[in-house]
Specification:
Layout lengths: L6 H20 L5 H8 L3 H4 L1 H24 L1 H21 L3 H14 L3 H12 L2 H30 L6 H21 L13 H9 L4 H19 L2 H9 L3 H6 L1 H44 L6 H23 L7 H30 L1 H26 L1
Amino acid sequence: MQAAPSPHRTIVLLSLAAFASAASLRVMDALLLRLSSEFTVGLATASNTVTVFATLYGLVQLVMGPLGDRHGKLRVIAVACVVAAATSLACAAAPGYGALLVARAATGASCACVIPLSMAWIGDVTPYESRQGVLARFLLGQIAGLSAGAALGGFAAESAVWQWPFVALAAWFLVVGIALARAAWRQPSGAHEAPGNLVANLLEVARTPGVPRVVVTVFLEGVVLLGGLAFVATHLHLARGASLSVAGMMFFAVSAGGFVFALQARRIVPVLGEARLAAAGTVVVAASVLSLAWAPWLAAAPLGCFGAGLGFYMLHNTLQTNATQMAPMRRGTAVALFASLFFLGQSAGVALMGRLAEAIGTGWTLTFSALAVLPVGLAFAWLRARRS
């Protein structure tokens, strides 16, 4: 019998899966103007391709979390990656806007479990004291995927054929899904039969002390921050004259900020503690988004994007670490609830910010995003400090 793969190798595979999931989310950001022109729809209508992905991504996690607890987290992730490969190809082959919208919804549903069940699996195999650093390293894949997706979308927006990123993502999902399937079937599933039905399990997790504080915060973070960040590329194109490919590549600076945090998390977390880390991250991301809104030079955008990435991951990784410990006996369900509310918040946020962008412009929309995240993040930090 073959030996089970090491947790380190499995975490690398999970990080690669998270890359594809995150890239699928962000690939549409810089494509919105191209879609608006291609299908003769308004910017707010084009942004529905982001909204439906995030909505289905959020809703389906409520099912995937309990499935991971029952049948094994790695096994569910592996199957989901293979299905996501098929739905990504459907995006590339969509003959019209309606078909694209359906394919994007299916892609959001099919890769919904990748990141939350990966985090829950890491929570199963990692002590809480060292978990934030391990989660931060796992999130390198997600961080890189967010920026790579935006950059791919930017290049595709100025290409003769804008569908090619979806073919590339389909191939990535398929290769990683097969590798994860081999890993999953060579080690114990870690599954258990959770009593009660889906609704009862979710209600039990939601009633656990401390859970409302974390899930409400992450929902509002999705609304006010991620909703605004979806329009950074469009803002840099319209207000600063950047080409869509250059605007999309700016998100590599967001990744750089996230990478710096992920690589230094083991040193930063013990020094600041969770509450001060969340508070500092909130201030940094708010100031950075404000600079993106109003700095008159395009050359300043990489610094603003770097700060946005650094601040966001300081806050969000703290929330994620808390989420993995909310309900240890139903960790898959708990983390899925957390991630579901985050992406439902993002879905609502993109819809809100799309309408704000059409009504008041992208600069004021980003300003609203920056100011609104301050009470959200600082309130969480204050409550976390009181609990400590």
